[in-house]
Amino acid sequence: MKFDYSYRAFLISCLLVGNLILLLLSITLKGGTPPIEEFTPVEYIEELPLEELTVNTSEKFKIETNRAYNEAEKFISEQENTRNEALANSEAKSDESETSEENSISNEMAFNDAKDKLNRVKEKLSDDTKKRNTRANSSAVNRKTTISYYLVGRTALKLRNPVYTCDQGGKIVINIVVNTLGKVVKTVYNKTASTSTNGCLIDSALNYANLAKFT
Fold first, then answer.
1. pTM of the prediction?
2. Are residues 134 and 57 part of one domain?
3. What is the predicted pLDDT for the residue at 41?
């Protein structure tokens, strides 16, 4: 009998210990925090070339101007139709001549306003067309610019062809000092070798020279 009681006590102890272990495992699994994945967003920016951006802007302006022009012409056409209808009604109904006259005056004023609006659109279109042609001619001249350098044992890694917006032209010579890393650390305008003293050209040349990089 003593052996049986001891055996039962042993079984009960094992069951209690097993339940305790399962309870601890359950608490551990529920309290665990899943790993957090961190994502870093990467932004890609497309830079349009200057010429393509100019074309896109011109096309957008052309569409908007044409839309305004078409709306003005449509409004004028509607006003003409309304005015004709009012005149026809006034002739058919003599007893309503006063009302028709008022409507005719109102329509005439609206018609004149529409014509003024159309004229303003035409003037703006003409002015903007002249400005775009001027910028296009200026860009055509600027694209003829060239750049050259003379550095013993150095090769250009970054040397952009300058695009000037200056009114005058000429040859600008810039003396540069390059460090061991190939970076320009000093720029000086060479008046003797240059053919122009235009401040706009000099400032632009100095700016492009500072942006250059060599081996």
1. 0.34
2. yes
3. 46
